[in-house]
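Q: Got a minute? One more chain.
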Amino acid sequence: MAAYPENRKEWEAWLETQLGVRQSDGRRLFLSGRFPITDLVESWRREFTPERGYSPDFVPALIRNQKGFLKWVLGNGPEPNWARDDNTQ
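A: Always. Here it is, folded:
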């Protein structure tokens, strides 16, 4: 299986590399409700494919938890329970 970001700092770096969103800008966008979630989901789908060695369950878990992901990475919230979703956290 391919390596993927595993902690807040690695995801911050990934957001900057993939979306050009630095942590301070991402936090501001998140807190104002203007984070480019569509771009984020598209980047996840493009980057973390089974063809590249990622589990086919990885992107669906990220998508189910996209709000929790942003709270964790940009808002200093807890890491989501990836087996659940934003509505059942």
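A: The chain is about 55% helix and 0% strand.
Q: Perfect, thanks.
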